[in-house]
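Researcher: Re-running this chain for the archive, since the previous output was lost when a drive failed. Same request as before.
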Amino acid sequence: MNDETHQWRLETMAVRGGHERTQEQEHSEAIFTTSSFVYESAAEAARKFSGEEPGNVYSRFSNPTVQTFERRLAALEGGDRAVATSSGMAAILSLSLGLLEAGDEIVASRSLFGTSIRQFNNFLAKFGITTHYVPLSDLEAWRAAVSPRTKLFFAETPSNPLQELVDIPALADIAHEHDIKLVIDNCFCTPALQKPLALGADLVVHSATKFLDGQGRAVGGAVVGDHATLEEIYRVNRTCGPCMSPFNAWIFLKGLETLSLRMKAHCENAMGLATWLEAHPAVERVHYSGLSHHPQHDLAAQQQSGFGAVLGVEVKNGQEGAWAVIDATKMLSITGNLGDTKTTITHPATTTHGRLSQDELASAGITPGLIRISVGIEALEDIQADLACGLDRL
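Model: Regenerated structure tokens:
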């Protein structure tokens, strides 16, 4: 903060937060592309390695550029601290390894990103950590799934790609009744649109690869929360090494500078595209919480300041129809990534969720005719025209 009486708003923190200038007095944040750091004496090295004296030791766990990104993201989310990781999946893994042990249980929503489900089922399960899945919005199902071994609630809200939500304050109340930590994946909204910690969540997890960067340039992740909990996650990063590189941290810092502006543009375009798609005869259903008839529209308006950029669009003729629409596009990027200034399009059942079983796909609501569109900031008319190339032929 610039003084003790005025607190910066999100837009200002996104541009200036967390930056501590070096003796060179640089204006833009420096990139410290170094693996290690040097000391004036053996005694100084000993003090810094032991933690007696603050300072950098090794870039696996202490790098000034990464720390700037961590401080800035923590400020935006309203957390005490952040730990940056090499990817969003590394963030979830570091969180799980730091807070769980054999015999513990997670309760998670069914409508998670496919790779999150695989991490829980295929890898955490190998170490005796069990995950139970419940419908995201069904608060009673969350409550019923609690056991004495439940340590984490894990939810992605809005969900990928169907825009389902959970009432975060109500879910936090259930979690805290049983001394359970609530983790919210805030990837789709970012702190520009949603503040889970202020709504009662204990931890926020991010794939920085998505909207935090916003231009598809780098892979990274982060966990945000209180100091004591983040210290456990930091210890995983320090010892196991799923750390963020300094160069990627610098890219994410540049991405954060335009986060608020981009999210406003994304939301405006997504709302326009959702309305247009709803009226197209080849479209059977549009999943977007900004539409007034969405079953959780009021909840989205209550706990988010915008409805986000991601649409789930079900088209006629199942997978054949979905692939035909995707293949007919000329401008949109056919890719499994999202959160880019460029509009991206993919078929979840055969890409992002392609390794799930048919039962898991059905539980997650991923139908053969479902297309996911991450709406970029191109001219809306151009996005519509590109989609019309395929939709008009169904």
